[in-house]
Structure formats: structure tokens, C-alpha cells
Amino acid sequence: MGNLLTLVLTLSLSLVTLGAEEAKNGEKLFKEYCWGCHHQTAEAFGPSFRTIARKRSRELIMAQIADPQHTYRQLGYSRNSMPAFADLNQSQLERLCDYIISFKDAK
Amino acid sequence: MRKTLYALIVTALMSVSVSAREKIFVVERENNALAVIDFNLLVNEIKDMHNFNHAVVKFRDKDGYVITRDGYIVKFDPLKEKKVSEYRTSKSAIGFIVGDNYVAVANYDNKTVEILDRDLHPIQTIETGSRNVGIKEYGDRLIFACMDSDEIWVMKDTTPDAKKPNFTLEKKVKNIGKVPFDAMIDKNLYVVGLFNSPDIGVLDLDTMKYKKVPLDLGKRERILKVPHFGFWSISGEYFFIPAVGNRKVFVFDHDFKPVKSIEVEGNPVFTALSPDKKWLAVTFSGKKFPIVQIIDTKSLEVVRRFELPGWVLHVRWSSKHPRLYFSVNTADMVLAYETTDPDPKKWWKHFEWPVPKPSGIFLFDKAPDLKKRPF
């Protein structure tokens, strides 16, 4: 019983650590790729992450990052200034998406 | 004897130069604070300045002003190092100018240009329906570009002798090219950068004639930071224009005939010209954020490469000392390099200040020439 409790605690701690690590990865990707044009909560050269998170589905956010040339009209824009980040792998896209969506309820 | 006299004169000149007082204000990007460096020491912080991502400082007379990412304009006293007043013009803004009797803010969100008096009382709101960039003044005119509608607006103060200005639209230049993102001004020429067109735009403010100057951009790379223009990159002979999405700095003469495109190490962000116009410092984005290159403005060749210990978000040449300041954001430091030697390879690190997450560096040169800090 004691061993089981230790195992559950260890697993929970690992998941918490993993979650924190993933959030950090999302922020790292933001600083590497997005930071020059987007801000978390303020409109800049591109829309804020808060605006993006409130208006778009997760799938659409990922599609816009990977291939904006084919999604910008669907998002209601008449022209596109965003470069494609098709070189990000699925895991990176997920982490970045998590990071963007985390600002949905930001003030 | 002659040598001794020469040495004395040099020493005297140096001491004059050293005693001239330059206060350095550095934006602490993550701390909502403005760091103060005085007498070559990090001495103070002006706090509670709102969101300082991309904050920009300007000085006029003995007043300091800051625009914050979340749309506040803050007036501060650069001598007492204290906030004086603040006013929120919008939810997001990065550009403004300070005239004799007004402050004009080009907002992103709301889509307006806001005119305030020098004490930040609102006077006028100009609705543009676009995010607004590249705001400049030319005599009694105010000029800015509309990023979303591809226009330049020229506003004229109809009451230039009154205490408060009253700007009316004098000229709207349409279809200037796609997505104007910043501008610079040289005498009567308003030069606008276009993000989605392979040109720059030039408006002659005397004749109101507009022309597009093509840029040989070649294959465009992915852009991770929108470049900045500034009057720093206009020398007596040349305009230096950072390429959008290419590893080049374009050089034009004052008739906008292309002189050269200088190959540089990364996609440029800032091109900063030294006060004697001899050197151009170029900063970069992406993986090249830690690199700064120095271009000799005579030979138009890269003559020095700095690799700093973190991301360089800003550089500034001192106007009082032979120095170049670097803001090394991810290493939490501001550096001053001594630039007296005519060979840039011999420039050396003179000061290092531990400023947390620094970005823009701004210089105030109207502090009294005292022997020590007055407080």
C-alpha cells in the first residue's frame, strides 16, 4: 500500500513537472519565433494571443502557424503578412498552441 | 616641449569630454521600470510604468515621455527621475512624437491618432480606421502612415501660433504600397517602409509628390522581427535601409539612386549611425540576435563583428562620449564600448551595468554638468 502511494505521488509529481516543462517549451518557442510580431495581450504587428485564443479553434490556430497562406482568408483577413512555420513538428505546434490558448482569459 | 603641450591639450579635451553629463535611461522590458544610469553607475529605477514591452522614450526640452505597450503615455522628470503624469490613449501603441505644444500618439488599437498637450490633457482624436505607424513632424505638419489602409496622412496645424494645435487633414496619399510598418524623415522627405511590397515609399512634403523606390530584395527569408527605421540611418551622403526578410542593408544616395546593398550576417532590425556618421551599427533578429556588425560608411564594408553574451535588443551611440551602448536582454546587462580608436577592431568594453531584461536605451543630455548627483 505504501509502495502504491509512493508510485502515485511520484507519477503525479512527474506530471506536474512535465506540465511546467511543456509550458516553458511553449514560452521558449514564442520567444524564438513569435515574439517579434505578437504580444501576449496587446495588439502589435500581429493580433494578440488573447485575441487569437478567444476567436479561433485550436485546429485553426495550428493551421495558421503552419500554413498561413492558405488560412488567412478563412480568418477574415484580406491579405497575409505572416510567414509559414511548416518546419515546426507536431509536438512543437501543440506546445505553442497551448501557450497561445493559455492567454484566453488574460486581462 | 611640443609633445608635452600636445599631451596637455589632449588631456584637457578629454577631461571636458568626461565631465559632460549624459544620463542613460533603459527600458526594463519585463519589470515595468525605467533604469537610470548616471555618472557611469546604475543608480535608480522609475517604477510602475505599465507594460514596458516595446516601450519607447523621447525627450523634449527638460521633459521625458514614454509610450507603453498597453497604450499609456507617461510624462516623467528626467532630472528628478520621477513620474509626473500619465494618460491612456489606447489599448496598444508604440509610436509617438513630442512637438513644441503637443504630444501625438499613433495608436494600434484603437485605430486613432491622439493629440494631447504637453501635460497629457487630451486635445483631439483623429479617427483613421487603421493601425498607425511612422509618426513624424515637419514644421506645422504631422505625418503618419496607416498600416491597414496603405495610406499616408499629412495633417496641418491650422493654429500654429495658438497654445493648442488644431490638426486638419491636408493630404491623403493612397495606394502607397502594401503594409507600411515604419518611417523616417530627412528634411522634406518622408520615407516609409513597406512590409509586403518590394519597395520603399518617398513622399516629398514640399511638393506632396509620392514615388516608390524598388528594392532588390531577392529571395525573402522568414521574418521574425519587423525592422525599425530611424533618423539615425540618414548620413550626409546616404540613406541606410534595413532589408525586410533579407540579409542586406541597402544604401541609397539622397536622390534615392541605389549605391550598394551590403551583405550582413542576419536579417537586420536596427541600423544606427554614429554621431560622426563614420560607423553604422546593425542589429539582427532570430538566431543572430547576439550579433552586432559595424559598417564603415566610407568603404561600405563590414569592419567589426560583435558576438554579445545574449540577445541584443537595442544599441545606441552616445552623443557626448566616444561610446556605443548595447542592451543585452537575455544576459541582463547593458554594456558600453569605448569607440575612440579609428580601428573598430580595437574598441573595448568600458562599462557593464546589471540592468534586468533591458531593451531600449535612451539618452538625456540636458542634465546640469555637476560633480556629483544632486540627490
Describe the 3D structure.
The complex is a heterodimer of chains A (107) and B (375). Chain A is mainly alpha-helical. Chain A has helices at residues 2-34, 49-55, 58-66, 90-101. Chain A has a single domain, classed as Cytochrome c-like domain (Cytochrome Bc1 Complex, Chain D, domain 2). In chain A, helix 1 (2-34) packs across helix 4. The radius of gyration of chain A is 17 Å and the shape is globular. Chain A starts with a helix and ends in a 6-residue tail after the last helix. Chain B has 375 residues and is mainly β. Chain B has one domain (2-364): C-terminal (heme d1) domain of cytochrome cd1-nitrite reductase (Methanol Dehydrogenase, Chain A, 8 Propeller). In chain B, a hairpin with a 2-residue loop joins strand 12 (132-138) and strand 13. Chain B is globular, with a radius of gyration of 21 Å. The termini of chain B are far apart.
Distance N terminus to C terminus of chain B?
Answer: 44 Å
Biggest β-sheet: strands ordered side by side in the sheet of chain B: 3-2-1-31
Q: What does the average pLDDT of chain A come to?
A: 85
Report the count of strand segments of chain B: 31
CATH topology of chain B: Methanol Dehydrogenase, Chain A
Low-confidence stretches of chain B: 1-18
CATH-scheme architecture of chain A? Orthogonal Bundle
Look up the CATH topology of chain A: Cytochrome Bc1 Complex, Chain D, domain 2
Shape call of chain A: globular
Could you give a short account of the major beta sheet of chain A?
Answer: none
Number of strands of chain A: 0
Low-confidence stretches of chain A are: none
Strand content of chain A: under 5%
Number of domains of chain A: 1
By secondary-structure content and strand pairing, the structural class of chain A works out as mainly alpha
Name of the CATH superfamily of chain B: C-terminal (heme d1) domain of cytochrome cd1-nitrite reductase
The arrangement of helices and strands of chain A along the chain is HHHH
Alpha-carbon Rg of chain B, integer: 21 Å
What's the shape of chain B? globular
Count up the domains of chain B. 1
CATH level-1 class of chain B = Mainly Beta
